[in-house]
Amino acid sequence: KAEACTVDAGVVEALHQFASLPKFRRCCMELIAWSLSNEERSKVREHFLSLDTSRRGTITLAELQAAMDVAGISDDEIRHTFAVLNTNPDHEIHYSDFLAAMVSTRIKMHDSLLAATFKRFDQHNSGYITKEDLQDILGESSEDVDQFIQEVELKDGHQEGRISYQEFVSYMRGDPQTHHADKTVRVIDDQLQAQADAPPVRTSLHRPSTTTDRSRLGSKESSSSIGSPPPEDKHSSCALT
After folding, report:
1. How far apart are CA 98 and CA 100, in angstroms?
2. Which of 19, 71, 121, 141 could form a disulfide with 81 if both were Cys (CB 3.0 to 4.6 A apart)?
C-alpha cells in the first residue's frame, strides 16, 4: 500500500459518492469537467496532489486505498470507487476523472457550465438532447440511452423521449421544486392547447352602441390632454363597438 496521506475528508466523501451516482449523471459530470476553466480546475489541484503521493500525475489504487482507509471505507467500496473513476486503460485515475467527481461538491455547477454541457450533447442544435445525440456522444446501446432519458423524465412525469434544457438543469441540480414548477407549467400548457384545439364557441363581445354612449366617449376624449389619463367618470362606461 501507498504511504498514508492527509486528504480532505470532504474530497474522499465526494469520490465515494460519485461512484454511487447513476451512470448518466456521472457521464454528464465528466462532460462538465471538460468545460471547466483553468481557474476552476486549479481550485481542486491541491486536493489531487494530496492523493498523488508518488507525484506521477495520476492516482493509483494503492493511493486511493491509503486515503479511504482513514475514512473507514471498506476495501470492496474502495475498489468499486476506483473502478468507476478509472476510465483509462492504464488502471490509474487521471486529473480529468478526479475533476468529474469534484463537480457540484468542490466546483459549482453554474449556468454557463450547464449550458456548455447541454450544447455538447445537443449535436443538432435542436434545443433538446435526443436519443441519437446520446448514442453519438456516449456510444451507449439503445436500451441504455432509453434508460438515461427515462431517468431524467421520471423527475417531472412528462415523457417526450427527449430532454429539454430545463429538464437537464433540474436533473443535474437535483432541485425537486424546479421539477414541480416545470410540471405545473406543462399541465397548464397542455390545458391551454386543448382549449385552442376545441371548436370555437360563438360569443359576442359587442353590444349596440347608442348616441348617448358615443357622445360620452367623445366628451371624455376631448376633455383629456395628451399623455394623461381621461378624467374619471363613475357614471358612464365606454361603448363596445
Report:
1. 5
2. 19
- Cα distances (angstroms) measured from residue 241 to each of 17, 201, 203, 215, 230: 68, 20, 15, 13, 19
Count of domains in the chain?
2
Whether 240 shows a pLDDT value over 50: the answer reads: no
* CB under 8 A, 24+ apart: contacts of 21-29: 22/151, 23/144, 23/148, 24/147, 24/148, 24/151, 24/152, 25/171, 25/172, 26/84, 26/100, 27/138, 27/148, 28/117, 28/168, 28/172, 29/100, 29/101, 29/103, 29/104
Question: For the segment 131-190, what is each residue's pLDDT rounded down to a tens digit?
Answer: 999 998 888 777 888 888 888 877 655 668 899 999 999 999 875 434 444 444 454 455
Q: What is the mean pLDDT of the chain?
A: 76
One-letter amino acid for residue 189 of the chain: D
32 in the same domain as 49 = yes
Same domain (yes/no): 47, 83? yes
Range(s) of the domain holding residue 94: 9-106
Identify the weakest region by mean pLDDT among 5-14, 23-32, 115-124, 232-241.
Answer: 232-241
Answer yes or no: are the C-beta atoms of 164 and 171 closer than 8 Å.
no
